[in-house]
User: Fold this.
Amino acid sequence: MIPVNPEQRTTLVLTKTYQSTGRFFSARAAIRHLINGRVKGIDASGNCVSWNGADVENLNGEASSLNWADVTIDLYPDQPCLRSAPNHLTGEETQWPVPTIVVCTHHFGYRGMGHRSLSLKSIYHICRGVCQYCLQKIPFAEATKDHIFPKSLGGTNDDFNVVLACRSCNSEKDATFPYYNVNGEQVKPVSNRQSVGYFLSDTSLREEWKPFLFIN
Assistant:
């Protein structure tokens, strides 16, 4: 593990539907929110883990006994960590691994903004009239605005959760999540494809962030 400054931005923040909020926590904030149960941390193996191991699941939804408190999670070789003050008796310090990605529980860390909802005309223009599922050019009369994470499962109307779909693909997809296009690729939000860059002056872009920021 690599010790970092408590104020260094180390942690990408995702919504509970695993969409990027465009925010980054400092190392101190990531640990504080993890302990308070407001977020879960994703470890190097993709497990979504709480501080004390309660309510733990990995990305496949399988039960796990991992937790951050006892450092039973899988770590990256360059996992950032915070150091405690040396023990006054032994002189030893404790290192707390900082998750590089956290997932908000409920709606903590993200507040929807009505003006971020894209109109159908805007989505049609951004996608150049191409259905994001069948990848065919469609007339505007056949265009629909589809929710990547279905509204029936708690998805929102915000621009990070909508894509252009023809009526046929929209009907076929129904409430399926995740859903893939005809090339077997998971469909990505239209707005995030336009603004994938998140400027971080105090840290470099980590590899595990790129799939959530839609960067190759």
Notes: The two ends are 26 Å apart (CA to CA).
